[in-house]
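> forwarded from #structure-qc
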């Protein structure tokens, strides 16, 4: 008699949905409160009944703008609350989302590193031990002790990536943020993520760079209009993604509402 063994995946997502209420005018929100009605807004479901178990692999989320990729990343990272559904995370999670997210512009890079560690639940002593490695990888020189508000976009990404990957995360979540880095830094990041892959870390990211996706990722999840339409090996899903992007259906997600950051 065989005994089935339950697998505990690093991330398990169950029936996840995210709804936004879209108002034509700001005053319409007040009208709903005063009149106790829901007739002044339209519903936009950025994500609908998404379920998936992420393995100890590198998984890319693919899909047209507005398909729900970044919404899903933010919910997994814990910075956005789902309307329905649940996420189970096992291990230390770090995330690089939109540029500069989580950084305080008036604080220095060094101070932001300590703040970032505190938000992750890492004590100050451990962050101080890792400070030299973080500063070296970021490679921003004397700017490390200058306010984040004085940084270029590339410097912000350097510091964000260094913070996220130098604290030994079990799960790394990366949005399209690396697109603003130069080629040399992109290679440096890829080497760091290759090291993480060799140590069986879980990496989830969003990218429109098919060259990088095909070379770096193990699995892909394809979304459109907030729903998963396919998942599997990158070699199988990338052609489906490219076909979708060439079709009329792949443009539908961009036509519903002009909602910032719902990619």
């Amino acid at each position: 008699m065989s005994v089935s063994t339950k697998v505990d995946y690093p991330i398990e997502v169950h029936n996840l949905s995210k709804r936004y209420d879209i108002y034509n005018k700001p005053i319409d929100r007040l009208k709903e409160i005063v009149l106790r009605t829901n007739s002044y807004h339209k519903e936009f479901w950025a994500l609908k009944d998404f379920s998936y178990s992420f393995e100890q692999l590198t998984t890319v989320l693919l899909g047209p703008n507005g398909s729900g990729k970044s919404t899903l990343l933010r919910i997994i990272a814990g910075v956005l609350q789902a309307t329905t559904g649940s996420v189970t995370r096992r291990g230390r999670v770090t995330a690089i989302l939109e540029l500069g997210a989580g950084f305080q512009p008036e604080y220095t890079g060094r101070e932001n590193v300590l703040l970032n560690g505190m938000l992750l639940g890492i004590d100050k002593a451990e962050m101080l031990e890792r400070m030299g490695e973080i500063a070296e990888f970021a490679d921003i020189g004397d700017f490390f002790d200058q306010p984040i508000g004085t940084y270029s976009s590339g410097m912000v990404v350097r510091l964000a990536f260094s913070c996220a990957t130098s604290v030994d995360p079990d799960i790394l979540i990366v949005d399209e943020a690396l697109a603003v880095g130069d080629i040399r830094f992109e290679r440096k990041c890829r080497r760091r993520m290759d090291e993480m892959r060799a140590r069986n870390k879980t990496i989830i990211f969003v990218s429109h760079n098919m060259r990088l996706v095909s070379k770096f990722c193990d699995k892909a999840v394809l979304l459109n209009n907030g729903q998963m339409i396919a998942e599997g090996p990158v070699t199988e899903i990338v052609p489906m993604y490219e076909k979708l992007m060439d079709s009329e259906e792949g443009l539908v997600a961009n036509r519903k509402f002009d909602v910032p950051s719902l990619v």
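QC bot note: The domain at 92-169 is CATH 1.10.8 (Helicase, Ruva Protein; domain 3). Strands lie at 11-23, 41-54, 58-62, 84-89, 93-96, 171-174, 202-206, 219-224, 227-233.
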